[in-house]
Amino acid sequence: MAESYWPVFGSKSSESGIPRIGYLDWYVPRLEENRPHNLSLNGMQYEWDIKDLMKESIFEIANHHIGTLKDPRINVSTRENVDVERVVLCHGATQGLHIAVCAALANNNQNNVTIAVESPCYAPIVQSPQLFNHEVIKVRRLQPKENFGHWRIDKQQWLEAIKKSAILMITPILNPSGWDYHDDDREWIVRTCKENDVIIIADEVYLDSKRRHSEYLPFYELGDHCISINSLTKVYSLGTLRYGWIIASPDIAEQARRAFRTLGGMMGSPTLRIAESVFPELETALDKVQEYREKNLPLLRKVLEKFNISWNEPSHGLFGAFRLPHGINAMDFIDRECKQYGVLLVPGNMFEKGLDEWIRVAWSIEPLSFEKAVINLEKALFLAISQKTSQ
Ligand SMILES: Cc1ncc(COP(=O)(O)O)c(C=O)c1O
Prior knowledge:
By secondary structure, the protein is an alpha/beta fold.
């Protein structure tokens, strides 16, 4: 068991080898408990009827696809309205991170570079470059004062890090706060990286929750030095498929294609065939994102309001984060009071050391289950707060 659960910065040491993905050491055993009220899932929980979508073709899933299916990149290039040569498919966004790092450094003549990674984050973002012996330094997105509005960047600190780095890795819709960049920060990041010859790798797995809104702005649109990574995992509820994609400039995409063939070989036939039948239906998942948001969020707001918990709600996405009152420790809360009422959430310190009192809560489950989960969350909060205030 890891002693700490947050993402590890720095570089791989010969002593301890590859750093652990600590949050999985914490999370997997709790998922195995099958708690009935799961508010920890940061991806949509929508059940596709694959049999109905695929009909008889379901029996062909294990057959070879080459020569039978159209170029599988076309689904992504059409949906995003980009040239097909800019698209590289891969086995999920997590693999996309490794491929993007390799592609971004393909023409760099140094063996090891410094890479700035935004924190808080999903641990594989910061730990992937360490597999290749690169050094990773931290740039932070900061909680807003008074807990209201965007999480912002400290431009001075980011500038110093960018000047030392070859790559900047970011998660525009931040995990765990759910907040996207302030327009001014996004514009500054893109411009400053361009001026300093830094390639941006943006993990955009949550971005499609904004697709129907005017502010939808993937990084690949912002310059040849920007790489976007996305997948069917989160917004489209198909993590099991391991279907992801990278969109980059034609030159970087060509390097990414070579890196994918080196690291991943080929996409699997079942993955491509299922994706082929799902792509025309992806709007259904976006309808569900909207429905869950409209139905679930009012219930959550009401409970948090009851306890006077300040709730900085992101305007899009599937999850947000709040600070527990009275200094309650999030890991203890989840393992005691939440467990007692069958509720699972994720503690903030899975994403950044120091977010010990923060909880990530997702509204990604269907409304009837969400309603029951929130009733139990209320009971758990009531118990934890009463115990803390009676001490
Ligand atoms: C920011 C981020 N990127 C990527 C992933 C995983 O994506 P995939 O399943 O496509 O590898 C996660 C999962 O939690 C995530 O939070």
